[in-house]
Amino acid sequence: MKIYVAQNSGFCFGVKRALKKTFDAAEERKKRIFTYGPLIHNKQAIEKLTDLGVESVDNVESAKESTLIIRSHGIPLSIYDKAKKKNIEIIDATCPFVRRVQEIAREYYNKGYKVVIIGNPNHPEVIGINGWCDNNAYIIENDSGVKDIEFTPKMCVVAQTTITLEKWNSIIDKLSEKAGELREFNTICLATKVRQESCADIAKKVDAMIVIGGYHSSNTQKLFEISKKYCENSIHIETSDEIPFEMLEGCEKIGITAGASTPEWIINDVVKKIENKGGD
Ligand code: SF4
Hints:
By secondary structure, this protein is an alpha/beta fold. The chain folds into three domains: 2-9 and 191-275, Cobalt-precorrin-4 Transmethylase, domain 1 (3-Layer(aba) Sandwich), CATH 3.40.1010; 13-95, 3-Layer(aba) Sandwich (Rossmann fold), CATH 3.40.50.11270; 97-185, Cobalt-precorrin-4 Transmethylase, domain 1 (3-Layer(aba) Sandwich). It contains ten helices and twelve strands. It is flat. The site of iron/sulfur cluster has 12 residues, from helix 1 and helix 4.
């Protein structure tokens, strides 16, 4: 029996990096430390972090004189100043791809451009980017938002990293009528697309497919849908306790993929259990 783990599965680069920084910090500091908002939405990972003394807070004050970890979504610039004043050590795990968007927003805002962010106004990443241009950006989520934008001589457009290319293209088309000079920065990160493509590639060549991730995780559900399309014998599980060994009986090739909030140790655990056929 051969096991194929999708090349791009589980955490994206930015989340993996943030999690590593957090575990390293918790082990080095050996005291209660904080993350600015929950680091990831995965029950097992959060339990592990809690055991190590990592707690999520939604305001800087709660981390007074301690360590505050900035998650991959990033934060507004003003939070760094607040933390400094409260004597808080910052560990910055802002994803470098998000940092690029923040820096573009700041640079063009300082050059006198009106910044437009295409994305969800309530998403922490977008709130963070806006905080790099004095909370002065137009934030639009769909085509209909363009009509509320006034004509401006100089406009700079960036994207929330997880929007689709279709959304970007359709809004950019309309925005060109709203600006004298339009500087476009397509800052979409392709992590999700690549993960889905890897899932399809594996599902096409295996006898059974296991998709690991939270039952409420929409990106895991999407992976499961893709997997089923190419491999009838697909199943969605959360942890290695749910591996359907009867389903795998007689399968020569087994594929595994995982949603964006599934930690590597859960994926490895599933692989190990299948290799050992249920034993430890
Ligand atoms: S920008 Fe891409 S790599 Fe970075 S955290 Fe977001 S999805 Fe992950």
